[in-house]
TrEMBL record:
Keywords recorded for this protein, A-Z: Isomerase, Multifunctional enzyme, NADP, Oxidoreductase
Binding site for NADP(+): 11-17, 106-109, 141, 164-167, 180
Domain NAD-dependent epimerase/dehydratase: 7-231
Reaction(s) catalysed by this chain's protein: GDP-beta-L-fucose + NADP(+) = GDP-4-dehydro-alpha-D-rhamnose + NADPH + H(+)
GO terms assigned for molecular function: GDP-L-fucose synthase activity; isomerase activity; NADP+ binding
Active-site residues per Swiss-Prot or TrEMBL entry: 137 (proton donor/acceptor)
Gene of this entry: fcl
Xref: PANTHER family: GDP-L-FUCOSE SYNTHASE (PTHR43238:SF1)
Membership in a protein family: Belongs to the NAD(P)-dependent epimerase/dehydratase family. Fucose synthase subfamily.
HAMAP family associated with the record: GDP_fucose_synth (MF_00956)
UniProt KW Isomerase keyword: yes
Domain of life of the native organism: Bacteria
Protein name: GDP-L-fucose synthase
C-alpha cells in the first residue's frame, strides 16, 4: 500500500475495525476513509454503491459485521444472517463495480465444522456440519469467503479473507447478556468485586480448551496479509483456498481463562463451576501454520492482553452501576 492510498475501513467503530484504524495511522497511512452507521448504512445497496462511486477508494478492510455471543446468536438468528449477508454482498460487489482491486474480508473461526479435526486447518472448510447455535452467522461468513473467491476467479480481483480465532480487547462488547466469553467474564468479576461478592459461578466444567487473540495482533495480521505480494499470497493459499487462519496457535482451558481474568480484575472470592451447564466443543484451536510461513506470529500473551482490556474497560465503563 502507498501511504496516500484511500483506504476504506468498514466497521471502524467496532473492536477489530478500530484496531485496524489505529495500526494504519501508526504506520503512517493518512488517508483512511470511515463512515458511521448513520452516515452510511451498509445494508442499503444503493447507498453503498453511491459511496464507492464518489469516494475513489483504493483498498477496503471489510471489518463491519453483526456479532455476538451464544445467547445473541440463538436469539436473533435472522438478524445475524441477513445483516451480515447484506453488508458483505453490498460492499464486495460495490468495490468491484468501482474497480477496487484490493479488499480484505474478516471472517470467523466458526466457519469450520463443529467436529473439525484439531487444530482446524483452512482445508476443513465445508467438510462437516456447523455448530447449530451460530450456524446462520457462520453461513454468512462462509458466503463472504466464497464471494471473494468468486470475484477473484471471474474478474481477477485481489480479494483476500482472514479467519480470526476468538478475539478480545478495547472496544469489545461488554453487554451483560450478548457478549463473548472474555468481556462477559471481565464484567462479571468486576461487578462481583465492587459488590463484595464472595463467589462467582462459571458455566460448565472448565475443561474445554479455547484459543484467544488480542485484537491489536489481529489488526497487525490483517495489514500484514493485505500487504503481501500477490505472488506470495497465491503461493500460500493453494489449492483453491482464499482464506488464512489468524490466531496464536496456543489454547487454554476455560478454567485457566476464568482464573486469569479473576486475578487481573482483582476478585478475591471463590470460583465455582456449574457442571450442569453445557461445555460446548471440547477444543477449538486454529492451525496457523500457513500464516507463520507468510511471516507473521502473535505478540501479546493472554495475561498481558487481559490487563490491557480490563484497563480499557475501567476507563470507558464508568456508567456501570452495581448494588
Amino acid at each position: 500500500m502507498e501511504l496516500n492510498s484511500r483506504i476504506f475501513v468498514a466497521g471502524h467503530r467496532g473492536m477489530v475495525g478500530s484496531a485496524i484504524v489505529r495500526q494504519l495511522e501508526a504506520s503512517g497511512y493518512g488517508n483512511i476513509i470511515t463512515r458511521t452507521r448513520d452516515e452510511l448504512d451498509l445494508t442499503n445497496q444503493q447507498a453503498v454503491f453511491d459511496f464507492f462511486k464518489t469516494e475513489n477508494i483504493d483498498q477496503v478492510y471489510l471489518a463491519a459485521a453483526k456479532v455476538g455471543g451464544i445467547v445473541a446468536n440463538n436469539t436473533y438468528p435472522a438478524d445475524f444472517i441477513y445483516e451480515n449477508l447484506m453488508v458483505q454482498c453490498n460492499v464486495i460487489h460495490a468495490a468491484h463495480l468501482a474497480n477496487v482491486q484490493k479488499l480484505l474480508f474478516l471472517g470467523s473461526s466458526c466457519i469450520y465444522p463443529k467436529l473439525a479435526t484439531q487444530p482446524m486447518a483452512e482445508s476443513a472448510l465445508l467438510t462437516g456440519e456447523l455448530e447449530p447455535t451460530n450456524e446462520p452467522y457462520a453461513v454468512a461468513k462462509i458466503a463472504g469467503i466464497k464471494l471473494c473467491e468468486s470475484y477473484n476467479r471471474q474478474y481477477s480481483r485481489d480479494y483476500r479473507s482472514v479467519m480470526p480465532t476468538n478475539l478480545y480487547g478495547p472496544n469489545d462488547n461488554f453487554h451483560p447478556e450478548n457478549s463473548h466469553v472474555i468481556p462477559a467474564l471481565i464484567r462479571r468479576f468486576h461487578e462481583a468485586k465492587l459488590n463484595g461478592d464472595k463467589e462467582v459461578v462459571a458455566w460448565g466444567s472448565g475443561k474445554p480448551m479455547r484459543e484467544f487473540l488480542y485484537v491489536d495482533d489481529m489488526a497487525n495480521a490483517s495489514i500484514h496479509v493485505m500487504n503481501l505480494s500477490n505472488q506470495v499470497y497465491k503461493d500460500n493459499t493453494q489449492p483453491m483456498l482464499s482464506h488464512i487462519n489468524v490466531g496464536s496457535g496456543v489454547d487454554y482451558t476455560i478454567r485457566e481463562l476464568v482464573e486469569t481474568v479473576a486475578s487481573v480484575v482483582g476478585f478475591e472470592g471463590s470460583i465455582n463451576f456449574d457442571v450442569s451447564r453445557p461445555d460446548g466443543a471440547p477444543r477449538k484451536l486454529m492451525d496457523v501454520g500457513r500464516l507463520k510461513v507468510l511471516g507473521w506470529e502473535y505478540m501479546v500473551e493472554l495475561d498481558q492482553g487481559l490487563r490491557k482490556t480490563y484497563n480499557w474497560f475501567i476507563e470507558h465503563n464508568g456508567h456501570i452501576r452495581v448494588k
